[in-house]
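no rush on this but wanted to send it before i forget. theres a chain ive been looking at and ive put its sequence and its fold in token form underneath. please have a look and point out which stretches look like helix strand or loop to you. thanks a lot i owe you, the record is right below:
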Amino acid sequence: MQYQKIGNTDIEISRVILGCGNFGGIGSIPSLFGQGENEEQAHEILDAAVRLGITTFDTADGYGGGRSETYIGNWLNKCDEKVRSNIVLSSKTYNPMFIGDSKGLSKERISKKIDGTLHRLGIKQLDMYLSHEMDNETPLEETLSCFNELQKSGKIRAYGASNIDCEQLEKSISICENLNLNRYEWVQNSMSLLNYSEAEKVLQICSKYGLGFTPYSPLAGGWLTGKYQQGLDYERGSRMTLRPEPYGNFVRHQDSISDGLNSMRKISKERFGNISIAGLSLAWLLSDRRITGIIIGPRKSEHFEPIHEALNTRLNETDRIDLANLFPLL
């Protein structure tokens, strides 16, 4: 495993981060709460992650309506101190936790939600806290000031933003400078070989200001594993059967994606000892040192194998360019 400090903090994270969005639900969708991994299955995945050297877990109060945080907290409670002391926890807030719950990033809401997160995780201080989405109804000044207050009170060590665009990020940095506030330390946006153009723009800003960057969905919801093939039904329980909406653009470009994956297999065989296309996709991200860590969401023990491959594969700049050129800018 590789480790790296995030942003300008002293927080060291594993460069592979365990995403826990399927614990007790499928993301933050209330209609899917109670699905995904049950607590026993979640604990098995957490155990497997630690065996691989993963020290950093990413969750959110909206994942499974709080179940994800609860499962992690219960797992931590049964771990010995040596394991527990090495774990770095990241959580997020914005989405409703139940039907009828509020959403957003107002000071009142964040101040309430952080206490619930700390309680469910069974901790007194959260290492990393993120806004899960941007809130157009709440002034950025209010949200940023609230995160700073949480730092001063000792409830969080650092904060970041997920699903933020270039304009919002630049504005946030400017506000923090003008108000003498601590700024975001990292950004968590979607990025993979199938959608890297917009992420690259944000990544350049992060690099300019010394912020960390931890992309989620590095396998594009499973599309970079090759399991979604034309003419075949989607696997039951997969993202394409439970939550297909984010991947509509991939469906529309399925022919070109299929061609790109076939070319990937050829490159893998010729240059990298025939590792899986999933492993090569992860290695492509990890080979960019501007990326602090990637968030993966394995649902079975065998899903960890591409991570092993990626950590043991080195790409040069020619490899990176060749792989990126295999796919259209979707």
Summary: The two ends are 31 Å apart (CA to CA). DSSP finds 13 helices and ten strands in the chain.
